[in-house]
Write a structure and sequence with these properties.
The structure holds two protein chains of two kinds. By secondary structure, chain A is an all-alpha fold. Helix content of chain A is 73%, strand content 0%. The N and C termini of chain B lie far apart (56 Å). Classes of the chains: A mainly alpha, B mainly alpha.
């Protein structure tokens, strides 16, 4: 896999995300772009960098959050609270914990 | 607050005089000597990144489209970590440390890429400054009291005074203090507005309003496009990348996501609090519907004089910190990167100061004369930077592309985005020009760049 492959995937994801396609495709494009970028970063040399499984974990969490918004909370007032609590306030400590776990100790 | 503009100018001039006779190097003026801690850089970075759009345009957008507007800020829990992982560690580990984004790109792809980035950056900065100046006009007319354009001139003159005198050496401390003020004011305003409108909010929730569905009045396609634009877009905003140039060491990077995320969430509570309250009061008929950005000053006026004064301070802090960042970025592009890209060496403090003042003047004039709403102009600036800078940053970050391909990718991204923005009124909802531009730029790199530079 050459260095251009992630670029091709990111370009495809950005294009899918930019166009007014059916909603599920747009959210899959978001996950595709973010997971690809994190996977590419996980192969870099700097510290901190995501471990190999972090991109997939982040992608799964985003998938669950988006599925909630597209599914049960799409048209109910619960949608607002779904966005405020799981998507906003609870997602933050999860991603911070991933970052903390990615720091290589000296 | 009739004497407010004069007081603001006096404060800016006083701060400027304190820095006027300091011995400043290029590293001092553009990157505060790379001596900022995680706390300082994080607070300053949040203040620089969040602007009047958060305090005025955002809550107003929430009142216009309900939960749909939430999708612009929903990436916030992720973006601090994303930035530090994807670009932060890479920027801080550069040796020698670059001072600007075009210099960072130029160190990989040479003077043509550096010059192209500097020119595009300068264009975007002038547009961004115009947005901020326009926001002050709206705030001045509706909230601060007095003549809006006079406030805009005072804010820009005050900020230009200390940024021209001290550059980021002055700016980083002022921005950090402003960031702390923004956080406190934002949480306070969110709580005060929700308490004030609690009955209307309860009625809105109990009525099962479709405005509170996960997408409100926005389409899911629009929501996903915003999420993508405002998550990956943080990797390609020059005023977001700037904090990494200020940072002291890689060690500080470890604490940065916590500072960034906490301060970002604190400030963004104003979006939810003011937005939800304004939406509920509009639904209850207390505030007029279709008022655009003016609905926020109208709501704040109902909270009493203390809240209005606090909101004024918070809004001014948000605007001035962003204006300060764009003054510095614009001056760096024109007084540091363009001359170096053209083969000139050295650096002149006097010329940097003059360019800071001239750039501020141009941005202020454009903003005061602009008739477009703050929200639309805010998205334009973000999308434009994403369109041309994302391909270049990713190319430099992952070592892909040649100087020619990266320069072309930047021009393709900027050209596509600007062309689509010109026809934005005729575009399908959900089609984001910034993302299309970035997709074209990245696709160009994938197609044409096979070798490491």
């Amino acid at each position: 896999m050459g260095p251009r492959f992630p670029f091709a995937v990111v370009a495809a994801g950005l294009a899918l995300g930019a166009l007014p396609l059916p909603s599920g495709l747009g959210f899959l494009a978001v996950i595709l772009v973010l997971v690809t970028l994190l996977l590419a970063t996980s192969k870099a040399g700097e510290n901190p960098k995501p471990h190999r499984h972090h991109p997939w974990l982040a992608g799964l969490v985003l998938l669950a959050l988006f599925a909630g918004a597209l599914g049960p909370f799409r048209s109910s007032p619960g949608g607002f609270f779904w966005l405020v609590f799981p998507c906003f306030l609870l997602a933050a400590p999860f991603f911070l914990a991933l970052f903390e776990a990615s720091i290589r100790k000296p | 607050m009739k004497g407010g503009p004069l007081l603001l100018i006096a404060l800016g001039l006083g701060l400027g005089l304190a820095f006027l006779h300091r011995r400043l190097t290029a590293a001092s003026f553009w990157a505060a000597d790379h001596r900022a801690s995680a706390l300082l850089a994080g607070l300053a970075g949040t203040a620089m990144g969040l602007s009047a759009f958060v305090f005025v345009g955002g809550p107003a957008l929430f009142a216009q489209m309900g939960s749909g507007a939430f999708w612009l800020i929903l990436p916030a829990p992720l973006t601090g970590v994303l930035q530090c992982w994807v670009v932060g560690g890479w920027i801080v580990s550069q040796n020698p440390r670059p001072l600007t984004v075009p210099e960072l790109l130029g160190s990989r792809f040479g003077p043509t890429a550096r010059g192209t980035a500097a020119v595009l950056l300068a264009l975007g900065c002038v547009a961004a400054l115009a947005v901020q100046a326009r926001a002050v006009v709206v705030l001045g007319d509706g909230l601060l009291g007095g003549h809006g354009p006079l406030w805009a001139i005072a804010v820009c003159a005050s900020t230009a005074a200390y940024m021209a005198a001290g550059g980021m050496r002055a700016g980083v401390w002022v921005d950090a203090i402003q960031g702390a003020v923004m956080g406190v004011v934002a949480v306070g305003l969110a709580v005060a507005s929700l308490v004030h409108a609690k009955d209307a909010v309860f009625r809105l929730v109990a009525s099962g309003s479709p405005w509170l569905g996960a997408f409100g009045q926005a389409s899911p396609a629009q929501a996903s496009a915003w999420y993508l634009l405002f998550s990956v877009g943080t990797l390609a905003q020059p005023h977001y990348l700037q904090k990494f140039f200020l940072l002291r060491t890689e060690r500080e990077l470890r604490h940065l996501p916590l500072v960034l995320t906490a301060s970002l969430l604190a400030v963004l509570t104003v979006w939810v609090g003011l937005g939800l309250s304004a939406l509920a009061l509009v639904a209850a008929g207390v505030l007029p519907a279709g008022g655009g950005d003016a609905v926020v000053p109208q709501l704040l006026s109902r909270l009493g004089p203390v809240a209005v004064a606090a909101a004024g301070a918070g809004c001014l802090a948000a605007i001035m910190s962003t204006v300060a960042a764009f003054f510095n970025l614009l001056a760096a592009a024109l007084a540091y990167d363009v001359p170096h890209a053209l083969g000139g060496g050295g650096w002149s403090l006097g010329w940097s100061r003059a360019v800071t003042l001239a750039g501020g003047l141009a941005g202020t004039w454009l903003g005061v004369a602009s008739q477009r709403s703050v929200a639309v102009l805010g998205v334009l600036g973000w999308g434009f930077f994403t369109a041309w800078l994302l391909p270049a940053v990713l190319a430099a970050r992952f070592g892909v592309g040649s100087p020619a391909s990266v320069t072309t990718a930047m021009l393709v991204g900027a050209g596509v985005c600007a062309s689509l923005e010109f026809f934005r009124a005729h575009l399908a909802p959900g089609l984001e020009p910034g993302l299309v531009g970035a997709a074209c730029g990245v696709a160009w790199l994938a197609a044409t760049a096979g070798r490491r530079p």
